[in-house]
Write a structure and sequence with these properties.
alpha+beta; 7-stranded antiparallel beta sheet; two-stranded antiparallel sheet; 5 helices; 27% strand
Length: 217
């Protein structure tokens, strides 16, 4: 069950309800969380939001590459690109997502891809080109982002064109392609926004149970 009723699934094959894969190893999934979103700040405070997300991701042992506020089907949302270590310790998994938060629930579109047997080529090439002094940089979302995977320039979008088959490139491009095609259920769109004042009884409005994943175009 999800308030995401459709999106462009070209080249994706459904593996189970709400999960699709393609021949390049991408995994696409949609989610609905019937909980108050655990975002560290409202979307209208982007600097605080980005810093809080970067800190929490680092504490989990991963790395926040980007966090950008925007819209999905005209509804305020936040996009994140995150890198995590593979469970076997060899290489990384890259995850891109849009979280569409409401006062008492949220919808998420997520795309992920893992490095294959060859790892570190993008990082090695970029490090050689920019030099070791310019490769690692402080996290752009502020001080206090410590631990987790380090921030470096090889993750920047400017390098994607030179590494078209890298999982980060694929995740970033696929999420960008899908975003304009996502359609949200009208009832979900009309729910109170995340960060809105609580109603008189102090509880956020509960989502109605009409969310169902429709057929995708």
């Amino acid at each position: 069950m999800t308030p995401i009723t459709s999106m462009d699934l070209t080249d994706f094959t459904e593996r189970e309800p709400g999960v699709w894969t393609d021949e390049r190893g991408l995994v696409l999934s949609v989610h609905f969380f019937d909980l108050v979103p655990d975002l560290p700040a409202p979307l209208d405070r982007p600097d605080v939001l980005r810093h809080g997300l970067a800190v929490s991701v680092a504490r989990a042992g991963a790395g926040l590459i980007e966090a950008v506020t925007g819209e999905v089907d005209s509804v305020p949302a936040v996009r994140q690109l995150v890198k995590v270590r593979r469970p076997n310790g060899h290489g990384q998994i890259f995850l891109g997502s849009w979280t569409v938060p409401k006062a008492g629930c949220s919808a998420v579109v997520k795309v992920q891809a893992a490095e294959g047997p060859m790892t570190g080529l993008r990082e090695a090439v970029v490090a050689d080109r920019v030099g070791p002094d310019r490769y690692f940089t402080p996290h752009p979302y502020g001080p206090g982002v410590e631990g987790g995977l380090p921030h470096h320039v090889a993750d920047h979008e400017e390098w994607d064109a030179q590494f078209p088959d890298h999982p980060l490139t694929l995740v970033r491009a696929t999420l960008a392609r899908l975003t304009p095609t996502v359609v949200l259920q009208g009832g979900f769109k009309s729910l109170p926004p995340f960060g809105a004042p609580a109603p008189a009884d102090g509880r956020p409005a509960a989502p109605r149970r009409w969310f169902r994943r429709g057929k995708s175009a």
